[in-house]
Amino acid sequence: MPFDNPTFPTPISLENKILICVRVLSLAPRQAAQTDTKPAHRQHTIVSTANVPQLSADLLIASLDLKCVGVFDPQYLVPAIGGRDDDDNAVGMTSPLESYGREGVNSVIIQPRLPVLKSAKEEYLSALLQFISDSHFSAVLFLTGVDVQNRTDEQMMSATYHIAPPNSPPHTSTSLSSLTQIEPTHPT
């Protein structure tokens, strides 16, 4: 996925970071694989009922005082732009898909603001997975939700939880364990 950092004077390295992805469409669990080389994390969200993943990403961005560090090619998403609001002195426009991070924080967040175009879903997934592979993150965490329109009546009556495969290592023995150490930079 083309990733650009045209206006940001000090780009940060994505290697050895945790990628947190807010999911904008459904990904099968097999596609959310952990990379095997570098310790980095990243997050990605999906626009869903109550937008809990989106709100979680916004909370992390605000609590950790993350800044927009790059934009992705918006060709896969519903086209739109908006005013920048991530800083009191912010100028410029936001795009449909941006990356947030800063030096000293081991996580980077991919923040989608709009859903993926149905006609571009496969291309988006391929580009996203290639970006994740090329960036050498130590771990990838997908924040997901289920759009009510895509759930059956039976599913509406049950809670939605993350189910880890039986042979998965506990999160405390992976690079995701560092997420438990995150402290907000803003006073509470």
Provide a descriptive summary of the structure in words.
This protein has 188 residues and is α/β, with parallel strands linked by helices. It has one domain: Rossmann fold, CATH 3.40.50. 16% of the residues lie in helices and 20% in strands. It is built from three helices and nine strands; from the N terminus they run E-E-E-H-E-E-E-E-E-H-E-H. The strands form two sheets. Strands 1, 2, 3, 4, 7, 8 and 9 form a seven-stranded mixed β-sheet that branches. It has a two-stranded antiparallel ribbon with strand order 5-6. Strand 7 and strand 8 form a beta hairpin. The chain is globular and about 45 Å long. The termini are far apart. 34% of the residues are buried. About 13% of the residues have low confidence.
Query: How big is the Rg?
Result: 16 Å
Name of the CATH first level: Alpha Beta
Beta-strand percent range? 15-25%
Tell me the overall shape: globular
Helix/strand-derived class?
alpha/beta
- Helix-residue proportion: 10-25%
How would a crystallographer describe the biggest sheet? 7 strands, mixed
Number of domains: 1
The H/E string reads: EEEHEEEEEHEH
User: What is the average per-residue confidence, as pLDDT, rounded to a whole number?
Assistant: 71
Total strand segments: 9
Gap between N and C termini: 37 Å
Oligomeric composition of the shown chains: single chain
